[in-house]
Write a structure and sequence with these properties.
3 domains, 12 helices, phosphotransferase system, membrane, sugar transport, transmembrane helix, transport
């Protein structure tokens, strides 16, 4: 009888101790909170850039208002700040937006579990999720934002700039910022809703894959327009045989207009493909070749 009473007393003490160590219940995360976190990351991105932590200070800054709603305990809030100041580096929109939402989702699950006295997601799992996804998502974001979307806006407004209209320089930057901010917030919401499955949805999901493919095709189309209309390369070679005059540029235009600009672009493309994206070296080589050809009045 005494042993049973001791066991019951020990169990009651354990339950009481567990209850005492439970955290306060976190506040509900709203779309306004997601917007605050996304805007904080988007606004501070690259500002407090450090060599040892890279973009972690920016990411932590964006999460501050959300973490304050999730962790009412001072010690747990401090731990949350510390784990999001670890090394972090990814592309601002596709990587940062998605991982902002995913991280908030995981932190919310952890905070709720700790408040209810349940087994919570570990700190290592949250950090490992960020580290594991920041690279692949950065690759997608760089190719779409820097390699496609910005050139679409540049191609659209380049004629304005050529005519001396200041909108040709202003609008590509402004519209690019608006566009990336808008779908970056969408990615934040999707990351929060889908949690850890958000990255899989981006990389393999049918709808998102279709959007990415569509942007890629449009980007290639716009780059083709830029190469054909705004890269000016023509041959000055002219000669005559038995009184018959030949103009090489006119002959090339009858075969395929814009052949020389296309060959220049393809030459750079194959160089980068073989040597890597060594842009400065490639441009120096191209400049040297063009100077030599112009000296001999070939182009």
């Amino acid at each position: 009888m005494s042993e049973t009473a001791d066991i019951q007393a020990t169990a009651n003490e354990a339950v009481q101790d567990n209850t005492e160590h439970r955290l306060p219940q976190p506040d509900k995360i709203t779309n306004k909170d997601l917007m605050k976190s996304w805007f904080g990351w988007w606004w501070a991105n690259e500002v407090p850039h450090t060599f040892d932590r890279m973009l972690a200070p920016s990411f932590c800054f964006g999460l501050i208002p959300t973490l304050q709603k999730l962790y009412k305990d001072h010690d747990e809030l401090a731990k949350a700040f510390q784990r999001h100041l670890l090394f972090f580096n990814t592309q601002a929109t596709w990587g940062g937006g998605t991982l902002t939402g995913v991280t908030i989702s995981l932190e919310e699950a952890r905070a709720k579990a700790m408040a209810n006295g349940e087994e919570a997601i570990s700190e290592d799992m949250i950090n490992n999720t960020k580290v594991g996804l920041m690279g692949p998502l950065a690759g997608i974001g760089d190719s779409i934002d820097s390699g496609t979307v910005q050139y679409i806006f540049i191609a659209i407004f380049l004629p304005f700039a050529q005519k001396g209209n200041f909108l040709g320089a202003l609008l590509p930057f402004l519209l690019f910022s608006i566009a990336t901010f808008t779908y970056g917030y969408y990615l934040t919401k999707m990351g929060y809703t889908l949690g850890r499955n958000a990255a899989k949805e981006i990389m393999t999901g049918g709808r998102m894959a279709g959007i990415i493919d569509g942007l890629g095709v449009m980007g290639l189309y716009m780059m083709g327009i830029l190469a054909g209309q705004y890269i000016k390369v023509q041959s000055y070679i002219k000669f005559s045989i038995n009184g018959k005059k030949f103009n090489i540029q006119e002959i090339l235009d009858t075969i395929m207009p814009g052949m020389l600009p296309l060959l220049v672009v393809l030459g750079l493309y194959f160089y980068f493909q073989k040597q890597g994206l060594k842009i400065t070296r490639g441009l120096l080589y191209l400049t040297g070749i063009l100077i030599v050809l112009s000296i001999f009045y070939i182009i």
